[in-house]
Specification:
Layout lengths: L15 H9 L7 E2 L17 E2 L4 H7 L7 H12 E2 L8 H15 L5 E6 L6 E6 L4 E4 L9 E2 L5 E4 L4 H11 L10 H7 L2 E4 L2 E2 L2 H10 L2 H12 L4 E9 L6 E5 L4 H4 L5
Antiparallel strand pairs: 1-2, 2-3, 4-5, 6-11, 7-8, 8-9, 9-10, 11-12
Helix pairs in contact: 3-4, 6-7
Amino acid sequence: MKSEKLDLNNITQSNVGEVSNQLSTQPPKGAVMLDKSLLPSRGKFYPETIYVKKLNTLNIKNLATINENNINNVINNVLSNCLWGIETGKILTGDKIWLIYYLRAFTYDDIPFVLRGTCDNCGNIRNYKFFLKNLDVTYLDKDVPEYIELPNKDKITITYPTIATEGAINRLKNDQNIMIEINPELLELSSYILKVNDTKMSLYKAYEYICDMDAKSFSHFTNEMAELLFSAKPVAKFKCDSCGEDILLPMPFVPSFFLPKIK
């Protein structure tokens, strides 16, 4: 039976528990529903309804202090604070960088950020205005197959790494009980393996499997996966107004990006 919406202006001793539960499941004030089709993943792996709210002062302060040592912690904490309806650990790593650029655009009404760049083709130098649409994004616009069959006849069921997976990867890299040297690129690739044939793989078992692959199977798997990856890069894409060539400019997380001048 569908429950009726409670009158929050008429709280009694008998319904205080139900009121508390309903309040805890409501999006925070000012949050809006995220259009999941905008994500690099096109939202294909999020059954949840996701809400976003604007960056607050503390979020902006933390984002303005990002460096190579704290970037993952800062981003994860900001997403935890600004996204509602999904556990932070379930956010796909291919989506998380895009979400930070999106939150900045959402917070400041996509106020442009000015970049100065040179066209490698004609040498034209000018200022370019970065909007969210200029972000270099690779989208998952293909259907994910049930499995990838290798030349060795193994069938690999793939998955996509999440923020939680990033934590597992870092723990494995730093595990003192593992006597072999871990290759970071192969470890990242192994995080896309869910099952081999009907056997579910741990991250380490998947890594061992990748390392032991024959050359033909490895080549086939990496080429198939290249067609199924999605991400957002900290790069801005523009067209040269002189010759029409594509221009790619770094779009780093700098303090002025998160603290723009508001006219």
